[in-house]
User: Which sequence fits this backbone?
């Protein structure tokens, strides 16, 4: 992992090295320029000192020859020592590839001047007037030659100084340009790094913030944040993506597989499905009594058998699914009982292909719907009533239709029956089960985990049709 702290340290170290290298280079260049300038000035000073010392030594010699004072001789010796010292520095300080011969001649002339001055003083001390006078004249000639040669050397030095000044001006201009370029380059590099570095930090943070807002709104199935970084932000992004995925998985688990919710629903269903309406038993027993009085024991036996099957089916285990065939058989028993009671006032018909009878479904699905059709659609109907059950296969599913030609359902009642948001299922008036349309709808939707399995079509005065879509692959709480 490349830490953000490491990146910053590397950048600032590199910036420090570049800036210090630039400063050292500029300082060294400036020092070299000053050194060259001092060297040229020293050449001027040496030539000037030699010129002055030759004049001083010659004048002090003349004074001594004219006055014969020891103080003048001491002055001459001082100037002579200085001249010799300056003359020894000529070759080391003024020598170059272009003036070696000139400097050698110049040094020899100075040495000759010193010798002529010394001979003149020596001959003067001996009293040889002719000799020291001749050497005095020779010294004067040498002095003139030295002055001319000094002017020539100074002129050459001025020419070199002019060339040096031009080169130094160009060099200073170049150094200034390079310094400005280096400053701008360093500034732009620092600015670019600051922009890219800040953007590389703020962009992932903005993405994380935006995604966190989506999660706060409940959107857990969004796309992962893409990041190829190998620093703390990359680790944070990867961890955030993993956390959101796990959170989405946990929420789905809570929604789809909550055992507590399933148990509560099952308990509610058990409570609703196991109800028996005593009023229905009372009416059925009255019917049996009347039949026994009017028709005899065979029909009574059939009624008692149908009632027994109906009660046994209503009290069976509600956790296990049943076949459509089982639901149809119990509906037939219910039809027999109601047919005995109402005779020709109501007609029942069932039309289901054999290949549809094996499909699985929740127990007590068709009978409560037939009961509701009879009670709310047929009983208040003054004409002859009719209830039909039909089924057919469609795209891997079995469609079951329950029709009646009764009074129908008004719009308000339809909204109440189909309201899935009701926490408490409305009270039913069923004969044997006490289960209404809303209860059957909720059980089917829980059984198949879909809200597209149950629908009702009805108009006032036109009857009612209930459509159920059954599948062989249920996923709800009743599935084994």
Assistant:
């Amino acid at each position: 992992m490349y830490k953000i702290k490491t990146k910053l340290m590397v950048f600032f170290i590199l910036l420090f090295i570049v800036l210090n290298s630039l400063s050292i280079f500029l300082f060294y260049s400036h020092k070299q320029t000053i050194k060259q300038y001092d060297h040229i000035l020293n050449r001027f000073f040496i030539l000037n000192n030699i010129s002055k010392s030759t004049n001083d030594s010659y004048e002090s010699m003349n004074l001594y020859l004219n006055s014969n004072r020891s103080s003048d001789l001491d002055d001459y010796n001082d100037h002579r020592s200085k001249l010799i010292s300056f003359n020894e520095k000529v070759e080391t300080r003024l020598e170059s590839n272009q003036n070696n011969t000139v400097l050698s001649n110049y040094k020899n002339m100075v040495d000759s001047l010193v010798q002529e001055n010394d001979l003149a003083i020596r001959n003067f001390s001996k009293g040889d007037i002719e000799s020291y006078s001749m050497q005095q004249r020779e010294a004067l000639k040498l002095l003139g030659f030295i002055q001319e040669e000094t002017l020539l050397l100074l002129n050459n030095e001025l020419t070199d100084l002019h060339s040096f000044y031009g080169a130094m001006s160009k060099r200073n201009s170049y150094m200034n340009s390079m310094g400005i370029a280096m400053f701008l380059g360093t500034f732009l590099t620092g600015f670019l790094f600051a922009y890219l570095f800040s953007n590389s930090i703020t962009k992932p943070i903005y993405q994380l913030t935006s995604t966190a807002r989506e999660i706060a709104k409940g959107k857990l199935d969004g796309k992962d944040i893409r990041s190829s970084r190998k620093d703390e932000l990359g680790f944070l992004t990867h961890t955030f993506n993993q956390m959101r995925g796990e959170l989405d998985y946990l929420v789905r688990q809570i929604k789809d597989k909550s055992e507590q919710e399933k148990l509560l629903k099952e308990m509610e269903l058990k409570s609703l499905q196991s109800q028996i309406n005593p009023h229905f038993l009372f009416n059925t027993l009255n019917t049996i009594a009347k039949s026994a009085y009017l028709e005899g024991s065979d029909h009574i036996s059939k009624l008692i058998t149908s009632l027994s099957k109906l009660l046994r089916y209503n009290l069976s285990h509600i956790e296990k699914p049943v076949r459509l065939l089982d639901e149809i058989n119990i509906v037939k028993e219910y039809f027999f009982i109601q047919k005995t009671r109402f005779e020709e006032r109501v007609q029942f018909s069932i039309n289901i292909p054999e290949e549809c009878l094996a499909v699985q479904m929740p127990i007590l699905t068709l009978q409560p719907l037939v009961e509701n059709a009879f009670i709310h659609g047929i009983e208040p109907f003054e004409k002859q009533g009719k209830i039909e059950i039909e089924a057919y296969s469609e795209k891997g599913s079995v469609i079951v239709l329950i029709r009646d030609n009764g009074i129908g359902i008004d719009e308000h009642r339809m909204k109440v029956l189909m309201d899935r948001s009701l926490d408490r299922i409305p009270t039913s008036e069923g004969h044997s089960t006490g289960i209404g349309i809303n209860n059957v709808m909720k059980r089917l939707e829980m059984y198949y985990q879909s809200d597209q399995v149950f629908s009702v079509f009805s108009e006032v005065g036109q009857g009612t049709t209930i459509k159920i879509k059954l599948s062989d692959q249920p996923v709800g709480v009743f599935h084994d």
User: Anything to note?
Assistant: The two ends are 51 Å apart (CA to CA).
